[in-house]
Specification:
Strand order of the largest sheet: 3-4-9-6-8-7
Structural class: alpha+beta
Largest sheet: 6 strands, mixed, barrel
Radius of gyration: 36 Å
Distance between the termini: 14 Å
Helix content: 40-55%
């Protein structure tokens, strides 16, 4: 067997070839190569390798000078390079057409990987890299209020706190506030509820936002008694009014009040959660309003020049501490924080999900590149004679590498074109899976950033999967390849390279499978856990009456009582109740309270619980058990003493072994609150906190003593719950024809909708893991098939000398088993690292769940050994004499 001639360092050759003028390049590189071969025989490979590099470095200066004195003619070389590139492209296309199977498989493999990378980057682009809808966003901040005791990280502020910050802070050029709102638009055929924001008049100025028509708010429009004005969102103006210019100056009837439209908001404001806003109105901060001390405001500010968010945060904290002693106890324990606008968009869990997705799709791309690289390495064997002929005719190694990389770029370009279409299809699938409820999925588009990212992948991936096969193929021995038509020299090293690639695929696949398994099991646990109530057969709808028309508790109570009375008489209705919140859908607010006879030294130690405001019959309708005491009744109204029910967890946590029935509590508020007597203990609801398996303490307060304007109507039936939607809507309109009904869903559907985004993300991870598993199995099968084909003569001799089929099969299985074992060990280490990102995302299991970390490797090992067994079985079917005659 002919020994392959050693080659000088290819990177040093590339450096010399780039610096030397064309006319001297071949001569000087040839002379250096001859001297390299001569010295290698005398001084050994390491010393000769160092010598060559020293010659390359020493010649940098002279070569630059030589190039300046003898520059290549600009027209001819440039034309030659272009012609060579076009020639390489044409040859690469012809080569792909001659091997359609390889071209299709490699292109589709890469297209899938590039498609998912593009899709996920479009999500990251929306959340992390997209331009915020404001001028100079680097100076815009968002203020949040945190309460450690209540577990609130991103809370709001009261109007009292905002005004204190606004009047005393010197860090902000502008400090504005806003809060969400809903209004009923009437005047058309059917009443329409519109969402929007009430903002201080300087809000748009603080964000540097203008209007496309009309004007923004002026300062006087935020004063009590000012004329009602509104700005319409661009989307609402287009959908509802056909983008008519005469809408500016017209009037809208919102909650029975006339509002003059003074402007149309720029489309840039239809971003993330702001995209849901249809109407913007001035926010009036009236100290006599009962909501003045409610924690309902969000605050934003534009920093002065030279001021950082950290400096502004320290100033706001100092102001907050200065007014703390003047405030009631309810305000204590809240810490203001200042974030740059971009940093406030994603919470910690969101960042973990983005990081996991980014790592996952990177792994998918690496697996695809390793798979195509293995196919190229195997294909290089079949092209051994072609490469040898070109080498014999004078083609240099660098020229051959460039040709083969061009072929890889042809694959990369085709894969990227298909991948762009696949990424669009994937994003549309995510929108469909989440019923369009996830704003980030809808906002993800193939903009300039995404196209640039795809272009970078197109340029980088051919190098990732094509460079190593190109270097191996171009460096093969000429004489042996011309003799037998293959590039067998260096086969052992080539097998090691292929083994490393497959082992890497196995490691990455195992990591992805562990992540997908942990998340999938979390979803299963979330579906199977006991909720504490029965959502089956329950219809849910929300009715929010305008406070401007129902100004006192008595009017609101009468309206909702009529809704209950009319709905109860409908055919098929087993029960109907009211609830201010719905379990796992809206979430009840957490309220602090005092317990009679218990002294709390620190405000942080006050007991707290979720406060559910419900009407009588709620426990029966939702199938929540009454453990002791009595249920709420119609007599628990404004004329009777105030009562409440507590959950079993609240009773255990705050009263211990003592019976809570008959005990009294008082809700902590900025105004004087009455004592409430506990009259019953009920079952627990499941916790909404994935990291806390304990149920959250809960209070159930009667609607008759806590009347609200925004309530959910819940109806139970044995039939189809949605069939009651029309009759209930008619009954509500019989009471008030201007009252819309919103969010009509069954409770089961509402629970599913709340999990749709999680389901979609889990499906992504599972899909990626299955892709990785398939690619790993294909890689193992390909490498072992190639190994068997290369060892045909050896296996034939063994079997001719009496080796048993089982022994030959075990020999081949052992070779593939090493790849699976080593790759699996590395994958377990990677999975353990990735699992640390999942601690706050998994439910009901540990991030290092032993079942997952044992079961997943077992599945991957089984699949790997099946892929390994097929070539091993084929090896035992070889007929020794026929194979030896062919050899």
């Amino acid at each position: 067997m002919t020994v392959r001639q050693p080659e000088p360092p290819w990177l040093a050759q590339l450096l010399l070839a780039w610096l030397l003028p064309t006319r001297y390049r071949d001569q000087q590189l040839g002379d250096l190569r001859e001297e390299f071969l001569s010295r290698r025989a005398r001084h050994g490979p390491v010393a000769t390798w160092k010598w060559y590099w020293r010659q390359a470095v020493r010649s940098l200066g002279p070569n630059v000078a030589l190039r300046s004195r003898n520059p290549d003619k600009p027209d001819k070389p440039r034309a030659t390079r272009m012609e060579t590139l076009l020639q390489d492209l044409r040859y690469g296309l012809r080569t792909m057409l001659r091997s359609p199977g390889f071209a299709v498989v490699s292109t589709i493999t890469l297209a899938l990987a590039i498609g998912v990378n593009t899709a996920i980057f479009s999500l990251v682009n929306v959340i992390v890299f997209a331009d915020l809808p404001m001028g100079d966003p680097g100076t815009v901040t968002i203020l949040r209020s945190a309460n450690q005791r209540l577990g609130v990280e991103m809370g709001g502020f009261t109007a009292r706190e905002y005004l204190a910050y606004h009047d005393n802070s010197e860090s902000f050029a502008e400090l504005a506030a806003w809060r969400g709102g809903q209004w009923i638009l009437t005047g058309d055929e059917e009443p329409l509820r519109v969402d929007g924001f009430s903002v201080t008049p300087n809000f748009l100025r603080a964000w540097g936002i203008g209007t496309v028509a009309g004007r923004t708010f002026v300062s006087d429009e935020g004063q009590p008694g000012a004329p009602h004005v509104a700005i319409l969102s661009h989307g609402f103006w287009t959908r509802q009014f056909g983008a008519r210019p005469d809408v500016v100056g017209s009037t809208l009837r919102l909650d029975g009040e006339e509002y003059t439209v003074v402007g149309i908001m720029t489309p840039a404001m239809e971003y993330a959660s702001l995209a849901e806003a249809e109407v913007w109105v001035p926010l009036t901060l009236d100290r006599t309003d009962e909501t003045f001390d409610a924690r309902m405001l969000f605050v934003t500010g534009r920093l002065r020049d030279g001021v950082t968010a950290e400096q502004a945060g320290r100033e706001i904290t100092a102001i907050s501490a200065g007014i703390a002693e003047e405030l009631p106890p309810i305000y204590r324990g809240w810490d203001p924080r200042v974030f740059y606008a971009m940093d406030s968009l994603v919470n910690d869990d969101g960042r973990r999900v983005l990081l996991l997705l980014t790592l996952t799709v990177t792994f998918v791309l690496l697996i695809a590149c390793a798979n195509v690289a293995n196919m190229l390495l195997a294909r290089a064997t079949a092209r051994g004679r072609e490469v040898a002929v070109r080498r014999a005719l004078g083609a240099g190694r660098l020229r051959l590498v460039r040709q083969m990389l061009t072929e890889s770029f042809v694959i990369g370009i085709a894969a990227s074109a298909i991948g762009l279409g696949l990424s669009r299809l994937l994003m549309q699938s995510l929108i469909w899976m989440t019923n369009g409820r996830e704003a980030a999925f809808q906002m993800a588009t193939l903009d300039g950033n995404v196209m640039l990212f795809t272009l970078l992948i197109t340029l980088i991936t051919p190098l990732a999967f094509g460079l190593l096969p190109a270097l191996r193929s171009a460096g093969s021995d000429v004489s042996s390849a011309l003799k037998d038509g293959t590039a067998r020299a260096g086969g052992r090293k080539g097998n090691r390279i292929r083994g490393v690639l497959v082992g890497s695929q196995v490691a990455l696949a195992l990591t992805l499978m562990v992540v997908a398994s942990l998340l999938a099991r979390s979803v299963i646990n979330m579906q199977q856990r006991e909720l504490g109530f029965d959502p089956a057969g329950v219809l849910s709808m929300r009715v929010a009456i305008p406070e401007s028309r129902y100004g006192d508790d008595d009017a609101r109570w009468q309206f909702f009582q009529q809704v209950l009375d009319r709905s109860q008489g409908l055919p098929g209705v087993e029960g109907v109740v009211l609830s201010r919140s719905r379990p796992f859908v809206d979430g009840a607010p957490t309220r602090s309270f005092e317990i009679a006879g218990q002294v709390v030294e620190e405000e942080m130690d006050r007991p707290s619980a979720q406060a559910w405001v419900v009407s009588p019959g709620y426990l029966d309708l939702m199938r929540i058990p009454l453990l002791t005491g009595r249920d709420l009744t119609e007599q628990d109204n404004a004329q009777s003493y105030e009562v409440a029910l507590v959950s079993r967890e609240a009773a255990r946590r705050y009263w211990g072994e003592e019976d809570p029935i008959g005990q009294r509590i008082k809700l902590v508020s900025n105004r004087e609150m009455p004592w409430i007597q506990i009259v019953g203990v009920v079952g627990d609801l499941a916790s909404t906190d994935s990291q806390d398996e304990r149920s959250q303490p809960a209070l159930y307060l009667p609607f008759g003593q806590n009347v609200g304007a925004n309530m959910a109507v819940l109806l139970r039936t044995q039939g189809d719950p949605l069939s009651l939607a029309g009759p209930v809507r008619e009954q509500v309109w019989a009471i008030d024809a201007d009252q819309p009904i919103d969010d009509v869903r069954t409770m089961e559907q509402a629970l599913r909708d709340g999990r749709l985004t999680s389901y979609a993300l889990i499906m992504l991870f599972v899909t990626f893991a299955v892709f990785a598993l398939a690619m790993s199995a294909v890689g193992i099968y390909g490498v072992m098939s190639y190994s068997v084909s290369q060892r045909t003569a050896e296996i034939s001799i063994r079997m001719a000398l009496g080796a048993k089929s089982g022994n030959v099969r075990l020999m081949v299985l052992g070779q593939g088993g090493k790849l699976v074992l080593l790759g699996g060990a590395a994958g377990l280490l990677g999975a353990a690292g990735m699992s640390q990102l999942l601690k706050s995302l998994v439910i009901g299991i540990s991030a290092l769940d032993p079942v997952t970390f044992v079961g997943v490797p077992a599945v991957l090992g089984t699949i790997g050994m099946i892929a390994n067994y097929l070539p091993a079985r084929r090896a035992t079917k070889i007929e020794p004499m026929r194979a030896l005659r062919v050899e």
